[in-house]
Design goal:
- The complex is a heterodimer.
- In chain A, 62% of the residues lie in helices and 8% in strands.
- Chain A is mostly helical.
- In chain A, the strands form 2 sheets. Chain A has a two-stranded antiparallel sheet. Chain A has a two-stranded antiparallel sheet with strand order 2-3.
- In chain A, α7 runs antiparallel to α9.
- The longest helix of chain A is centred in the middle third of the chain and has 29 residues.
- Helix content of chain B is 26%, strand content 24%.
- The longest helix of chain B has 31 residues.
- The two termini of chain B are 45 Å apart.
- At the A-B interface, β1, α2, α4, α9 and α10 of A face β1, α1, β3 and α2 of B.
Chain lengths: 236, 258
């Protein structure tokens, strides 16, 4: 893409290169804010979950992460510090999530990430195109249907992780909520699996952004993306 | 609503985009720097009972919120006693000495001292006197602050039955409890102590408590983590201010409420 833009920078025939709005300011701030906050939440969460020797997942005698990483992340005997960070920084995550939800609803931005029912039939074709087995991509708006499913699922994951978080934080006062999740241990497990899903999403997300090119990353910083558009349609 | 097709979105020239882009990036960098400074300050600044003071403040703020929302009518679900599990032994302070040996106590001459807010001893009870209070059994999910939980059956009497004997003193906002040698000590808020499922117990899964599980008398309640469910109670004090709490001193949230 970048090469094409360079070649046509001067504007060939009837196209020109302009920056087109892609991400509103609110989205950009809330998106980047999540990066350090989620990192702190997951790190402090590990310090809680893996504080006790017998809670640590192991392959035979080896712990889940290499010893060096374990020391670097200061995971041993860090329960009190983990709880302190988790239960205070959790506020930032919850408030950011609530603001994001309100913004999506009130601005209409939710339409970019919630797939239309009729788009679901495009999933196989989109998937095949993504992994390179299909030349044509189905028609799309800002995001294709796989992206929409991914970003909508992220919202869902955020909701589930916060709700299960409150449930396991106050299991007696919110006994009805614990019951909804099938008990205390069950609510905890859902909380942990959702965390794993977030980590999985993160790796897929940065891989996809890397594939899409620097312009995609820059768009989430600046809000605009360089595109070739027909000259007459430009606002300038 | 904005039509999200490319044609009707805002555009700007590439030149303006480069300028605005740099500005956005630097703004973001500035925000990141402020965030880093905040985190550094938290990690290297003042400490309150073994955790960064700002985090202790938020612990307390969270506690205020949930104390405000606390309902005595919110009950832990109870289970059939057949589901009770063998309770893990955790929490040795005041029970085992540094060599791991059980600290001895004389079950025949064991007493529990009750003190009022000014420290004056109101009464000294034998275990039999406490066992004379109405007996209740409760099968609930016991939760450790480490995260694990087990279903257990506690047998004893609701703390409110004892508090009723000391009505004036029991109006105090705090209850402090300690082992006879003061090797372990906790304090709890009045509302949690008077919750119907908070009990002074002497039986676990239908058997008398062993020393390791808190004989001859311990606190059992599903509205607090295990750390508050002190074993081997030697002294109960009704207090106007928080009395010392073993794990609070070591970095944990004082409220520890569920």
């Amino acid at each position: 893409m970048t090469n094409t833009l360079t070649r046509h920078e001067e504007g060939a025939a009837n196209t020109e290169v302009v920056a087109v709005e892609k991400h509103p300011r609110a989205i950009r701030w809330m998106h980047w804010f999540n990066f350090p906050i989620l990192s702190i939440m997951i790190w402090s969460g590990l310090r809680i979950a893996w504080a006790s020797d017998f809670r640590q997942p192991r392959f035979d005698e080896d712990r889940f992460l290499p010893e060096e990483v374990w020391q670097l992340l200061d995971l041993d005997r860090s329960l009190a510090r983990g709880l302190a960070f988790h239960l205070s920084f959790g506020w930032f995550f919850v408030i950011n999530g609530v603001l994001y939800t309100l913004y999506l609803a009130l601005s209409g931005e939710w339409r970019t990430i919630v797939p239309k029912l009729q788009s679901v039939k495009d999933v196989p074709a989109t998937l095949l195109h993504e992994i390179g087995l299909r030349a044509e991509a189905p028609a799309k708006g800002q995001y294709n249907v796989m992206q929409q499913l991914a970003y909508s699922t992220v919202w869902l994951m955020g909701t589930v992780i916060v709700v299960t978080g409150f449930a396991i934080f106050k299991p007696t006062q919110l006994a009805w909520l614990i019951e909804l999740f099938g008990g205390y241990e069950s609510a905890r497990n859902i909380h942990f699996w959702t965390t794993i899903a977030f980590v999985g999403f993160f790796f897929v997300h940065i891989a996809q952004v890397a594939r899409a090119g620097f312009g995609t990353l820059w768009a989430m910083v600046t809000g605009y993306e360089l595109k070739e558009i027909p000259a007459e349609a430009s606002d300038d | 609503m904005t039509d999200k097709k490319t044609m009707s979105r805002k555009t700007m020239s590439k030149e303006e985009f480069d300028v605005r882009g740099r500005r956005s990036f630097l703004t973001g960098l500035g925000a990141a720097a402020i965030g880093m400074a905040g985190l550094t300050r938290i990690n290297t600044g003042p400490v309150d009972n073994n955790i960064p003071a700002p985090l202790r403040t938020v612990h307390e703020a969270n506690a205020s919120i949930w104390q405000g929302l606390f309902r005595e009518t919110a009950l832990e679900p109870t289970f059939d006693p057949s589901l009770a599990e063998d309770l893990i032994f955790n929490g040795r302070h005041g029970i085992l000495d540094s060599a791991g040996e059980e600290i001895p106590f004389d079950p025949d001459n064991y007493t529990v001292e009750i003190a009022g807010p000014d420290g004056a001893v109101l009464a000294t009870h034998t275990i039999d006197e406490i066992k004379a209070l109405p007996f209740v059994e409760m099968t609930v999910v016991h939760k450790c602050i480490e995260g694990w939980s087990q279903i257990v059956t506690w047998g004893g009497t609701p703390f409110s039955n004892l508090a009723a004997l000391y009505n004036d003193a029991a109006q105090a906002p705090i209850v402090g409890l300690e082992t006879p040698d003061n090797g372990y000590y906790v304090s709890l808020d009045r509302a949690s102590m008077l919750h119907p499922q908070t009990m002074l117990t002497w039986e676990l899964n239908g058997e008398p408590l062993t020393a390791r599980h808190g004989a001859p008398l311990r606190l059992s309640t599903p509205v607090k983590y295990g750390i508050k469910q002190i074993k081997r109670i030697g002294r109960i004090q009704f207090a106007d201010e928080r009395t010392p709490d073993y794990w609070e001193e070591r970095g944990y949230d004082w409220y520890a409420g569920l």
